[in-house]
Amino acid sequence: MSKFMPEPFKIKSVEPMYFISDERREAAVQEAGFNTFLLKSKDCYIDLLTDSGTSAMSDKQWAGLMVGDEAYAGSENFYHLEEVVKEYFGFKYLIPTHQGRGAENILSTLTIKPGDYVPGNMYFTTTRFHQERNGATFVDVICDEAHQPDLADVPFKGNVDIAKLQKLIDEVGGDKIPYICLAVTVNLAGGQPVSMANIKAVSELCHKHGIKVMYDATRCVENAFFIKDREAGFEDKSIKAILLEMFSYGDGCTMSGKKDCLTNNGGFLCMNDEELFLEAKGMVVQFEGMPSYGGLAGRDMEAMAIGITESVEYDYIAHRVNQIRYLGERLEAAGVPMVKPYGGHAIFLDARAFLPHLDQQQLPAQALAAAIYRTSGVRTMERGIVSAGRDVKTGKNHVPKLETVRLTIPRRVYTYAHMDYVADAIIELYKNRESIRGLEFVFEPKVLRFFTGRFSEI
User: Which reaction does it catalyse (predicted)?
Assistant: First the structure.
């Protein structure tokens, strides 16, 4: 196994963790309907449900909360955030939102007409929901390698397949494609990055046909690290410089500040188009708040501005990615199947290979996530057929090629010792995997069913 430097921070404040009994865990998973989203936080020993809003903030961020300007309009913290976003992202205009979902809603509502198409390098749940809600059809244009979990020697499995994108443009015309949603990194592919060369090629093709390039920038710092680590010509460039070059090829972005901005709340929408900016300002007033706070407190904007500057520090982001590598290497050494190469925010277990005795319609990823909690108290989440949802036209299940369980590592929260516990628990479960039974829905919401759906064992 690789050798890694220890955590690049000192612990100043601690939160107790409690390990509950087998009996209480069994009662908890039954009460939650085998849905890890419905478990109570207090019943989870190590919580790897998500990296969204779960970061530990720094001493400087906590200090920043104390200078929150809570004015209803014109908060000083908004101007600080605007300055930092321009410096690190390079876009002209900023609309703060309560989280990334608010930015997705504004972008989709203002740019999509019924009958449009939105290509993207693999779907994301809430993003596709907003696109479809406004009448668009999502088209996956990611490279084929992204759908092959055990293919390890592809450094940029998040890349757009330019031929697929060109085919869509030829079939429907550029006027039917308001923008491409370019995720950096690609969450559901396993946190896989996009190369700078691919970003440039996408930009050139889209702009040739009048199509905007809008990034899902949620984990853009992780993507910049992978470019520095894996793409020739970038090894000596700073993370900040790589970020600026990445975004220079696009027209705007949606951002969940709850990930790479290292905050527990917030997000924003960026763009270079002044007309779109003015429309977005009008819409944010209707649904979020004044354009100078967008549903956020001043202190939240201050913490986000500071978090952006901290996120590009090399020691921080190198440790962030290496912690995922450490967990992945431990699991891989024991033969546990997963998406490779390891991504930037999580390890994605290959649930179909982990549980070959279950058919995909028996929801193997959901079953595996529940089993991990049952045996260890570690909360993870399903990213497979349940998350994929149903086709809005046919009502049939989307059947993704990737059926995974995501072990999502919060930023600056857990140590390598915690990763050892997680690895040991999953390795032991893998040895006894035949005992895991499939699941079926007993309650299925109409949209975003993975959040609140309930299941029972088959």
Answer: L-tyrosine + H2O = phenol + pyruvate + NH4(+)
